[in-house]
Each structure stands twice: as structure tokens, then as C-alpha cells.
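anyone seen this seq b4? input:
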Amino acid sequence: MEIVVAGRHTQIPDRFREFATAKLEKVAQYDSQAQLVQVEVVHENNPRQADTAETVEITVRGKGPVIRAEASAGDIFSAFDVAMGKLMQQERRAKDRRKSKHKMTRRQAQAFDQAMMGLTTPPVDAPAELAPPPTVDAELLEANGDRVKESTLAGSPVVIREKVHQAEPMSVEQAIYEMELVGHPFFLFVDSSSGLPSVLYHRHGWTYGVLRLETVPAKASVAS
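predicted toks r here
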């Protein structure tokens, strides 16, 4: 398992690099499929945000879904410890889910899917559940194969960051699972049942929403 520690707008002390590497060896105990662990440290220069000046994001990539955790604190060691705690919770959830899914009957799996979509309450027997930033007008290839590009909007200081992510079509259930692992409020995917680009988002409780994009042919212009 490879471990990469990088900083954005900050230098990474050797002491922190050794500290993080030693702690992250635990990841292999929970996830035997983990191949790459990326740690990104972001420093905020605003003195008014001194209590959250250091942000640490940990991302685990492997054969399974991406797992990510993030935390902010006044120093990088404290931020890392909080992010690491979140990451271990995510890893345990992923490990428990893999075990539980094999034990579920077809009926239980269908009931669990409905619960995850907010169509019903969960059944009793269902399982519980780096690189430096690119310069403006430049494109780079991240370690996981994603293409990232930043460019300025013509005539303004607005910077637009674009990312092209390679992914296989998946079910809504798998999209919910992967969104929860990365801790994001939304998740972009291609629905395997419909083939449509879709966005999954968390509403409240057990309720999720799905937006699908269907292409409509442009109307032909009418000659005057």
C-alpha cells in the first residue's frame, strides 16, 4: 500500500510525514484492497481562522469504492487525528457492510434498498450501516487517473476547476454506499439501469433524492 503526503500552500514537516505514515499503516488492517492512501494538507492564511487553519483530507483508493475523511484544526497533528478517526469509522462501516451483504436474503436486500431510498423504514434484520493544485489554464493528471484543469473566466478573476473522473455505471444502492463513504452531500454517477447521468443527494434521515439528466434534442430554429 502506497502512502502519499502532500501540502497545498504549505510545506510538510518530516515529523508530520513520519507521524501520518505510521498511523495510516492501520488502514491495511481494515481494507486489504487499499492500494493508495493520499493525505493532503491545506493551510489557511487568514488569521481569523487560526482555530481551523489546517485542514487534512485523507483518501483511500483501491479495488473497492473510494473512502475519504476530512477535518480542520489549529495544527496539522490535531486535524490529522480527527480525520483519521472519521476514516476508521468509514472503514469499519465498509467492512461490516461487506460482511452483512453476504448474509442477507434476497427479500432482506430488497427491503434494505427501499429503506436506503427512503421508501420505507429499515427492517429490523437489515445491517446497520497529490499533488499541488494546477496552475491557471493548466491541466494535470492525478494519481487516480482523474484529469483536473483550472482556467479563468474571460475578463474576470473567476477561476473554474474542472475534473474528469472515470467511473463504471452503478446502481442507486451502490451510489448511496459510495457517497456515504466519501462523506459528500451529493454524488455524481451513471445509473446502470437507465444509462442516464444522475446525481444522488442526501435529504434528511433515511431519505435520498436522485436527479437524472435526459438529453432533449434542440429545437430547429424557425426561419423568419
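The first helix runs from residue 14 to 24. Confidence is low (pLDDT under 50) at residues 113-137. kinda curious what u guys think
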